[in-house]
Design brief:
Chains A, B: This is LacI family transcriptional regulator. The structure is a homodimer of 334-residue chains. With 334 residues, chain A is of the alpha/beta class. Chain A is built from twelve helices and twelve strands. In chain A, strands 2-1-3-4-5-11 form a six-stranded parallel beta sheet, with helices on one face. A four-stranded parallel beta sheet of chain A has the order 7-6-8-9. The interface between A and B is large, with 58 and 58 residues. The structure holds a DNA duplex (16 and 16 nucleotides).
DNA sequence: CTGAAAGCGCTTACAG
DNA sequence: CTGAAAGCGCTTACAG
């Protein structure tokens, strides 16, 4: 197991300069056929592979994109990460990943250390001065923050919440409950506003329980719901996890879903259609979201070429979310 | 928005050499207090941040670890990824992530381009010559391959499968079915062997359906099970997803779980205890697995210091997996 | 304690 | 088509 070959070793073996080796590898046409041949043989003989770190330093780019998400253990991100990595890999880019809640100093460094040249940001709660201080092409995906000076991509959460309200109303529900995400989360706030807006238009009576997207919070909300004197018959949870927790707890308390209460979620996670009952929800095309974000970012990176962040379209780019009707919602009881 | 400062700018402003700036930043004690003071002021004034790419090239390391998994969209990896990233971040390391099925050429490059100095490998099906050709500290996590010249970490899948067989037997089941993972997967093979071994010891009658860990495969297995003349009363699925698919399909076909059939899974994913019925399963401590792998790898990286892969303990390090009894298994019917 | 100089491993004008 | 040389932005023996 000998030390790995450097470009100089290849050059020596082939009897040419390192410049020629470099050219033979990166733009074969710029080199004579015979020379190219000899270089390639030397490459094979030495087992040479380029040192990307050195090339990147010289070219002042990293060929890498950084993904930042508020909680990597959240399975919602899995498909998004996979799609981003897939597109990046096709484009010859590497993917770096980090929890975005690693502390201000570390976070600043990540976007500033020369090891990434584009960022996919899935967190709308980072300090705007940090985000805007990164002089790197950046795209906001899913979550967003109007203070960030960067384009954004995602579903139209307000419109999606309208679908939810419309669905419950169509089934005859007159009093509905929203189990929301946390107050400081832009998705939660937007979904809630959208739901209440549409429910109001439709003349429904509304209530809101604040939760935090998790299974446990959903279960807790179910207990609060059960304790109510007049229980809403339709429930819209801000996430599928929350809805599954809600339903699970309802069933444990002896209620039937959707017989006693209709419950719907948001996201359409993989298990949604295998849950019992199968979950009515809003489908978020996460694979498409990730791929679109990566593609857009790569475009920006090509446009930027070290010129920092470039022209930002004011309007968010929306990806379609759709209502998926399954078995957890039904006609109002009685 | 001016160009970012380099170390030379700081040096000029502080009236010292770049060497001194470098020292003031990396080992403040090796520099006079007054000098240090002036340097720090210049750093603040210029907004200087080190260019990690340049430092890494000079120091011939990447301060980065690479995670390779066969399918990033698999939610099983979420917590592992989060834990690895957490430990890495604490150690000042960056995390690179890639699907391990990106093609031989790209894969070879990833471990060979100087941008990572350690690898967490979650795939036992890569070509051994590729894996062994990376001259980088590497640890196998969860999946493994005896042909890889690297230590491994994970639960004892054979012992875990014993627990499953023991559990079903203790409930009185005499004929049991295993819905396995794919034949070419080391986890699947090991779990199946362990289950059959223990079931044999306990005098149970056994059968196996080969599947592939997914929800759909579980549902398909349920249909095959239902079509059987003599239906096994206890079913052990090689993954929770598979078990959820199996149960879901059983219920859709009109069977009761666990009234008509006991079904258990493997992994203990987040939804397992909120599923209806709550899933009996084998708990894999994924967070602990990820953290342990990262810690171990970092140790190896410190020991290695460019010396390539070092001493490999033959025996795998096992992390405890435990049986979690919930509601999807019960006494044998009748 | 501090600086000048070499060098990490590449690429790329510039000449020829 | 090819090479010598400079340089990407750092760090680190080596001297003093």
């Amino acid at each position: 197991m000998t030390a790995r070959a450097r470009i100089k070793d290849v050059a020596t073996l082939a009897g040419v300069s390192t410049a020629t080796v470099s050219r033979a590898l990166s733009s074969p046409d710029s080199v004579g056929p015979a020379t190219r041949e000899r270089v390639m043989e030397a490459v094979k003989a030495t087992g040479y592979r380029i040192n990307a770190a050195a090339r990147d330093l010289r070219q002042r780019r990293a060929r890498s994109i950084l993904m930042l998400a508020p909680n990597l253990s959240n399975t919602f991100f899995s498909q998004i990460i996979a799609a981003v990595q897939d597109v990046a890999s096709e484009a010859g880019l590497t993917v770096q990943i980090s929890d975005s809640r690693i502390g201000r100093e570390r976070l600043v460094s990540l976007g500033y250390d020369g090891r990434a040249d584009g960022i996919v940001l899935l967190d709308g709660n980072l300090a705007p001065d940090v985000v805007n201080g990164w002089h790197l092409p950046l795209i906001q995906l899913s979550e967003w923050n109007d203070a960030y000076n960067a384009p954004r991509l995602g579903i139209d959460n307000r419109a999606a919440a309208h679908l939810a309200a419309g669905h419950l109303a169509a089934l005859g529900h007159r009093t509905v409950l929203h189990v929301s995400g946390p107050e400081d989360n832009v998705l939660a706030v937007t979904r809630r506003a959208g739901f209440l807006e549409k429910a109001g238009d439709l003349g429904l009576e509304t209530g809101v329980f604040e939760a935090d997207f998790t299974l446990e919070a959903g279960a807790e909300a179910a207990r609060r719901w059960a304790a109510l004197d007049a229980r809403p018959t339709g429930v819209f949870c801000a996430s599928d996890e929350c809805a599954l927790g809600f339903i699970s707890e309802c069933v444990h308390m002896g209620f039937d879903v959707p017989g006693d209460v209709s419950v719907m979620g948001f996201d359409d996670i993989d298990f949604a259609d295998r849950f019992l009952p199968a979950l009515t929800t809003i489908h978020q095309p996460r694979k498409r979201m990730g791929a679109a974000a990566a593609e857009r970012l790569i475009e920006m990176m090509q446009g930027a070429q070290g010129k920092g962040r470039h022209s930002i379209s004011a309007a968010p780019t929306h990806i379609d979310a759709t209502l998926v009707e399954r078995d957890s919602t039904g006609p109002v009881p009685g």
